[in-house]
Amino acid sequence: MHIWVDADACPRVIKDMLFRAAERTGVALTLVANQLLAVPPSPHIRAIQVPGGFDVADHYIVEQVAAGDLVVTADIPLAARVVEKGARALDPRGELHTAATIRERLSMRDFMEELRSSGVETGGPAAFGQAERQAFARQLDRLLAALPRTRPTPQ
Q: Which of 21, 50, 84, 89 could anchor a disulfide with 97, C-beta 3.0 to 4.6 Å?
């Protein structure tokens, strides 16, 4: 498994959790953004800066992702595209998107977008707090615990 992060809008606390998880498990972690990102020095962690522009980071992630990978994103259309390729998508708030759930989320997102474009005030997402951090950490731990133990033990 490779973990890809739609990093432009990913909360710092989530990135920090992912950095620790990559170091602990040896899973490859790539953050993709249209701005320069600072990442800790590690053979498991890298940052890719893509050119600015609409959905450029999303397109890059979709081109690179493979079945079995994990993409961390709050972007529902991106989540739908990676799930279609056999990957999983995890929202920074801890919601895991799969083939069984993504169509409903995409429909709801499109419906809310229609409401907003017609002038209806829909509000935004709830504040990002401790409950969301814990939900993300639990889902990430479940996904990483399910990985085969192929990492060599230190000698």
A: 89
